[in-house]
Amino acid sequence: MPENKAESKEIVREEVAYEPYTIAMGPQHPATHGVLKLDLELDGETILNCKPTVGFLHRGVEKLAENLSYAQTLPLTDRLDYIASMANNVAYSIAVEKLLGIEVPMRAKYIRTIVMEMARLTGHLLWLATHALDIGAMTVFLYCFRERENLLDMFEEICGARLTTSYTCVGGVRQDVTGHFLEALHAFTDDFPSKIAEYETLIDKNRIWLKRTQGVGIVSAKDAVSLGLTGPTLRGSGVDYDVRKHMPYDAYPYVDFEVPIGSKGDVYDRYRCRMEEMHQSNSIIRQCIEALPTGPIRSPDAPDIVMPYGEQKRVAADATFASGVIKLMKDNEHYIDGDVYVSAEVPKGELGFYFVSDGRGVPYRMHIRSPSYIHIGALPFLCKGQMVADVIAIIGSVDVVLGECDR
Amino acid sequence: MKIQYDTKKNLAERIFLLEILKGLGLTLKRLFSKSVTIQYPKERKELFPGFRGKHALIRDPKTQDTRCVACMRCATVCPARCISIRFSVDEKTRARKVESYEIDALRCIFCGYCEEVCPVNAVVLTEEYEYSNYTREPFHFDMERLLKNWDEFLEKNKVDPDQYRNPFLRPRGLSIGDLPVGKRIDVPEEWTLEGQVIWKDGKAVSAKDAVSE
Predict the structure, then answer these.
(1) B94: buried, middle or exposed (CB in 10 Å: 19+, 13-18, 0-12)?
(2) Which residues of A touch B169 (CB under 8 A)?
(3) A271: pLDDT strictly greater than 80
(4) Is residue B185 within 8 Å of B165, Cβ to Cβ?
(5) Which of A36, A51, A155, A334 is in Cβ range 3.0-4.6 Å of A32 for a Cys bridge?
(6) Is the confidence at residue A309, as pLDDT, over 70?
(7) Smallest CA–CA separation between A334 and chain B, in Å?
């Protein structure tokens, strides 16, 4: 682990036998964003050591995937980062498509980019809401949920569920978008910058907010990289790394956007990064809507999707007799013998899927590189030498979701 | 893009708490704007077609029975394995007859795969979401119960079974040639591949109209 400046602060106690005081923060703590447990060793208010305990929400998604076909695992990815499940769906789909060597039609790519950025907005809005609430700004919480609600309603329109979306499929998306959806979303993007301005009016220069965030949880660019941070948490420290720019997928090569980068790497910088990212997401959504091409929404050569399609259709026609779909799902010829790692930029950071395939219709092993898990690993470094109250601000600023961490 | 921000305050801002006053002004302004809250039991949000809610087996208007042909697609594709079907095969015609169709709603993860794969549009997730209960027993839907769910859904929402359209029964944006015969139902033009929407001149228009202009 990299060295921390605050570590050098020596505690000198004379006469009294000194022992650090240990408290358990969580797993049922409102500000740990789920079931995260932190064992804090304290000297008064100062944190000497912080030990995260994870696994309270473990459901064994990786193991389940070994017995399910690639299409069947997709609904399980909704339950990873459950506040922006669209992003997980897209990340999972592009990983399987790489494994199968499928090219997705253009329209599906644009739709996926739109829903991915909508997921980023829902994720960042919930982050801002809870982060501000933890620090003590109640009004921002209510305002953020107002906008998030609109986005969730739009999700419901295109896929039939607000949170457990399961919208994409291997080789495209399951449903086309509707005109009402495009118009509602375009109107939303018209309005949204003024809403961000509202949040900023409330907290951007607020002296309580500044006192709680500036100079807290500082991580330098070098340390951030060696701790494996990704996403806005890394970019707040001034490292220019974004999967959307550096390993573009879906329609990101065709849209124009910038990656906001902070400088100091404190909680305030990470806050500013995410706020700026919301502006960028808003602009990406607009560009994608306006450039939405026509065409099919599913790739004709995608096997193992829900609805038999293209070439697969003929096989499935026997379904009433010889269980064609069962044959399809056990169809092995499309799957390579090998492994593949594909990552996508989700609101939390870089979400990667690693598949080891032995050529069957189910993965031999699926590993999820979840950003939250790695960010929780950085908490001891970030918290050391800080005050107890700052732990709340730091957990908020690295933006963890325990569903994704424990998976 | 390096983020630029300036959190320094000038003298007036430091003395008069201007940023706090600005925030208070905003909340005061919002006090007089229209409320966005939906008072739930009294008002209800209108759901979009295709909301994945309570399970039902569609009662065919002609036969007054289920359309299910026991092809086992739904039971196969279900990730939670909550559907179990028993069927018998006619010795002469090799036709299958469904004997029992059971869905364990407590295992269901509401992905909608079953209704999407169903080649005859027999099973559907209706737009019904209020069916909580105190015991587990009522969530074990057998065939009778599933057909009753459908009747209750029609009655409660005053839906004409011939007019009921759900995007999972005929997935939006797929060409008609790619669908099994049972799924080729009439849907709004917007849902078909030919009528898919694009953005033009500040509004969503059908791609067909955009080309012809």
Answers:
(1) exposed
(2) none
(3) yes
(4) yes
(5) A36
(6) no
(7) 18
